Amino acid sequence: MPVRRLVTSAFAAAALAFTSLGAVTVTATPAAADPCGFYETSSDAFYNHCTSDGSRVVIHVRVALAPDYERCVGPGKTWLGSASKIQGAHYVNRTC
User: Fold this and answer.
1) Phi-psi domain of 85 (left: phi exceeds 0; alpha: psi -120 through 50; beta: other)
2) 56 C-beta neighbours (distance < 10 Å), count
3) Which partner from 21, 28, 44, 66 sits 20 to 30 angstroms from 13, CA to CA?
4) DSSP state, 67?
């Protein structure tokens, strides 16, 4: 019986060491690309117009405690304002 416990303990210790080693060698992946459309970070609101044709589109921006508005945005990421003030934005099926 003592040999069996020793083998089991040695196996558990090896498994733990191997797992720990694997966790140390894991590399971080790059941050995901900004999503298309409206999105927020912890502090800011953005609209990302994903296109390959260079088009500009009209979006409707919903604002807290202020009038909503429309805005023309080009390809890529557009800052809309503070995430605490901007409630959302969406494409209104028009180009500009």
Assistant:
1) alpha
2) 13
3) 28
4) -
C-alpha 17 chain-centroid distance: 33
**What one-letter code names the amino acid at 96?**
C
CA distance 50 to 57: 10
The helix/strand count (H/E) of the chain reads as 1, 6
Structure tokens at 65: 């405690």
Mean pLDDT by 10 residues, the chain (96 residues): 44 44 40 86 97 96 97 98 97 97
Residue 3 CA to residue 23 CA, distance in Å, equals: 30
